[in-house]
Amino acid sequence: MKEKIEAILNEINAFTTESKEELDQFRIKYLSKKGIIPSLFGEFKTVTPEMRKEMGQALNSLKNSAQDKFNAIQEQLENKEDVTETDVDLTLPVDFSELGSRHPLSIVRNKIIEIFARIGYTVSEGPEIEDDFHNFTALNFPEEHPARDMQDTFFIEKNPDLALRTHTSSVQVRVMENSKPPIRTISPGRVFRNEAISARAHCIFHQVEGLYIDKDVSFADLKQTLLYFAQELFGKETKIRLRPSYFPFTEPSAEMDISCNICGGKGCNICKYTGWVEILGCGMVDPNVLENCGIDSKEYTGFAFGMGIERITMLKYQIDDIRLFFENDQRFLKQFESAL
Ligand code: PHE
Questions:
Q1: What residue owns the CA closest to ligand 1's atom 4?
Q2: Where in the chain are the domains?
Q3: Which residues have C-beta within 8 Å of that of residue 58, sequence separation ≥ 6?
Q4: Which of 103, 179, 216, 250 is most buried, judged by most C-beta within 10 A?
């Protein structure tokens, strides 16, 4: 019996197959009720008492070997089946789920930040709910002065000292309060004005304002900085012109036009046949503002400028309705994926 067990064990160890049928035959031959191994267990009765222990162990291990072999091959075949039966064509391209794209306003904001970062400007941010001092008073808007009406304000009902900021100049006040010149910073952010929504205006929009304060900063520095900025954003051939204007916080104040980036200055319906489009407000920081923020106006001068990101983006991409920026229609937003 011992030899028999050994011979069968060799057979089992040598067994291998790729087919389910052969595996089944293996099971029937060795492991089924009428198979070789159970019948050996039948013969076990005839084994002499001295040999029982040894034979019992040999028989059990034979049975385990057969069962293990069967299980191992069965698992192998099933794994193979998984792949073939699901009918996957591994050469097909992967079905990517669609990625979102950067919002056009973010693209342009980042570009503006990058242009100013190259000439040493940092980025500062501040609160969207602002107090009267930072949004108006420090910026030389006298109390009850009609200049406050220039920017229709959303006040907070429960606390009339608080409002949604109407410009990010409020951030610059905070920067001046908390740091010493030289200051060179831009403040991008969301601003709010109580305006009727139309194709041209929205009650929420975005600005980037800039501030430069140091000894001997002049209007010429302002002009050159803005020329650099306009040419970096709209192209080297861009020209600028400054028109006198009024802001409570700058003196003198100006508005800046660029030569129309669509027609190159020849005249088209975007520039209303003038060849110029307005893009920002600017000026020399009023000495009162410097003093309000704790900066000695006899020692330091500075310039400031501010622009709407929506306006710049609309000009850059010839978008004719500001509301598109806030509707989040994928068909609109997707067009800017690779822009800039
Ligand atoms: N704060 C002004 C506005 O919101 C823009 C501006 C900034 C003008 C700095 C001049 C200087 O309209």
A1: 167
A2: 2-82, 104-339
A3: 2, 5
A4: 250
Q: What percent of the chain has pLDDT over 90?
A: 62
User: Strands 301-308 and 204-214, how do they pair?
Assistant: antiparallel
Report residue 146's pLDDT band, with 50, 70 and 90 as the boundaries: low
pTM of the predicted model as reported, rounded to 2 decimal places: 0.71
| Ligand 1 atom closest to 169 (CA) | 1
Mutate to test the pocket of ligand 1, among 141, 149, 150, 167 (most ligand atoms within 8 A of CB): 167
What are the tens digits of pLDDT across the range 234-266?
999 999 999 999 999 999 999 999 999 888 888
Task: Calculate the CA 178 to chain-centre distance.
Answer: 30
Superfamily of the domain at 104-339: Bira Bifunctional Protein; Domain 2 (3.30.930.10)
d(CA 160, CA 148): 14
**Mind listing the pLDDT tens digit for each residue in 214-231?**
999 999 999 999 999 999
Residue type, 314: M
pLDDT at 168: 96
Atom 6 of ligand 1, residue of closest alpha carbon = 306
